[in-house]
Write the structure tokens for this entry.
Amino acid sequence: MNKIKALTHAKRAFTVIELLVVMVIIAILFVATNVAYRSVQARSRSSTASSTAAMVTKKAEAWYSALGTYPSYIQLSTGKINVADSTLTGPAESRITDAASILLNAATAEPTNEKQVAYKPCTAGGAQVEWYDAMTNTVKFTGVGGGSSTAACA
């Protein structure tokens, strides 16, 4: 009788191979989920950067529409026509909320994350907006009002 109980108990346990197979399946599911999650995150960050760049582009175009010239980096980042102005004198529609944490001077820095956008007026007219694309891990460019949409803005 004891021999029968011992056999039934042995048949109910998992073998090492069965446990390893289950662990491998769980590991494969974890890796697949993690890769998909990282892809969704990168796509979201790229979308954020692109929309921030579009917002800065529209602000520069609003400045041009109101004043007839594209703003310098300082004008766009401070909202002032002259640096010495004590109040905001630039067009209201071209003011950037929290410019200090978003806007970079493209002449001295380039964006390194999706929350930064660099702005640089071009000498030939127009301007250039740069942003970091997390999907391709590169900096992308867009021209504003005839500005260059490549790396060089002359």
In short: The mean pLDDT is 86. DSSP finds four helices and four strands in the chain. The chain has one domain: 2-144. Residues 2-144 form one domain.
